[in-house]
Amino acid sequence: MTWRGGEWTMEKQMSTTAIGNLLLGHWAYMRQCRRGEACFASLPGVGVSVPEMRESCTQTAGETK
Q1: CB 33 within 8 A of CB 50
Q2: How confident is residue 36, by pLDDT bands cut at 50, 70 and 90?
Q3: Of 5, 7, 18, 53, which is most buried, counting CB atoms within 10 Å of its CB?
Q4: Which residue in 14, 11, 48, 39 sits closest to 3, CA to CA?
């Protein structure tokens, strides 16, 4: 957890082998998205609401059982 912008965020760091020996590092500061905030209606990067994302995860989990 990292204190960022006046709130706790989860710092996610990842690395990926891009081409040959080239290692690409990337990270994100993930924060809770609350009702009433713009991100709740349209999650960054995917453009669906939090309830829609939850529903799609539930449906996907049900299909793999």
Answers
A1: yes
A2: very high
A3: 53
A4: 11
